[in-house]
């Protein structure tokens, strides 16, 4: 996909998150022209916006708001323009986290729900896990049986969004994984997608997932 001089294919939002460089490299390998920036105009104009995230939920939510990343996400979604959250970038698309220090830190609340500590004997969940992807998933096309790399202690363990439109709303596609309990591994909800795992650290399967997302930008 070749971007015009006026805009990149993908902007990775540069707001101090720790995994931006690896995300940029992985997206470039997926065939996208990528720009790392916090410039809101560039973030709005790009075909896709990636919101990476590592570290504490509250710090990520605060840093995102400090560059008005919340505004970029909301305006893009209002216009049906694709956004991909990664790791804490998935968690902050929900309402909250019970992570210490999160206190009353609010996520963007694009989906109802809370990230809660995984009830497993060993936390963080650090390693490769398989996922249960629903039929029709675009992100997991051709890779639904693969394993992906996770590094997290919190996860959204209940999907709380309900369809109040009587079936007129296209239901979100929720992919699950398990570590002590089932948790949301990925969501595809119209223009908003997110993964709890790190596709940029998930080898060939992660690279294919990013290629699937970059290809979907063409039809957005
Ligand atoms: N990989 C991370 O940065 C961890 C994210 C989050 N603090 C969690 O433990 O779930």
Automatic annotation (TrEMBL):
GO molecular function: glutaminase activity; imidazoleglycerol-phosphate synthase activity; lyase activity
Biological process (GO), any one: L-histidine biosynthetic process
Gene this protein is translated from: hisH
Quaternary structure (record): Heterodimer of HisH and HisF.
Reactions accelerated catalytically: L-glutamine + H2O = L-glutamate + NH4(+); 5-[(5-phospho-1-deoxy-D-ribulos-1-ylimino)methylamino]-1-(5-phospho-beta-D-ribosyl)imidazole-4-carboxamide + L-glutamine = D-erythro-1-(imidazol-4-yl)glycerol 3-phosphate + 5-amino-1-(5-phospho-beta-D-ribosyl)imidazole-4-carboxamide + L-glutamate + H(+)
EC numbers, comma separated: 4.3.2.10, 3.5.1.2
Localization of this protein: Cytoplasm
Pathway noted in the entry: Amino-acid biosynthesis; L-histidine biosynthesis; L-histidine from 5-phospho-alpha-D-ribose 1-diphosphate: step 5/9
Free-text function comment from the UniProt entry: IGPS catalyzes the conversion of PRFAR and glutamine to IGP, AICAR and glutamate. The HisH subunit catalyzes the hydrolysis of glutamine to glutamate and ammonia as part of the synthesis of IGP and AICAR. The resulting ammonia molecule is channeled to the active site of HisF.
Active site residues of this protein: 87 (nucleophile), 198, 200
PANTHER family in alphabetical order: IMIDAZOLE GLYCEROL PHOSPHATE SYNTHASE SUBUNIT HISH
Domain Glutamine amidotransferase span(s) in chain numbering: 11-214
Organism: Kineococcus xinjiangensis
Annotated NCBIfam families: IMP_synth_hisH
Main location: cytoplasm
Any one GO CC term of the record: cytoplasm
Record-given protein name: Imidazole glycerol phosphate synthase subunit HisH
Keywords: Amino-acid biosynthesis, Cytoplasm, Glutamine amidotransferase, Histidine biosynthesis, Hydrolase, Lyase, Transferase
């Amino acid at each position: 996909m070749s971007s015009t001089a006026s805009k990149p294919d993908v902007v990775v939002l540069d707001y101090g998150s720790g995994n931006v460089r690896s995300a940029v490299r992985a997206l470039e390998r997926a065939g996208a022209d990528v720009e790392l920036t916090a410039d809101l105009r560039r973030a709005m104009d790009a075909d896709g916006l990636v919101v990476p995230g590592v570290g504490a939920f509250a710090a990520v939510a605060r840093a995102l708001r400090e560059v008005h990343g919340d505004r970029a996400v909301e305006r893009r979604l209002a216009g049906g323009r694709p956004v991909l959250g990664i790791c804490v970038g998935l968690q902050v698309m929900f309402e909250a986290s019970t992570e210490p220090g999160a206190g009353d830190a609010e996520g963007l609340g694009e989906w109802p729900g809370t990230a809660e500590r995984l009830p497993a004997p060993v936390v963080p969940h650090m390693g490769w896990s398989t996922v249960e992807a629903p039929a029709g998933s675009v992100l997991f096309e051709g890779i639904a049986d693969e394993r992906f790399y996770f590094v997290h202690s919190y996860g959204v363990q209940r999907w709380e969004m309900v369809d109040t439109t009587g079936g007129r709303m296209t239901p979100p596609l929720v992919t699950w994984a398990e570590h002590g309990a089932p948790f949301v591994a990925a969501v595809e909800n119209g223009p908003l997608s997110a993964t709890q795992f790190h596709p940029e650290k998930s080898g060939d399967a992660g690279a294919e997932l990013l290629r699937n997302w970059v290809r979907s930008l063409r039809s957005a």
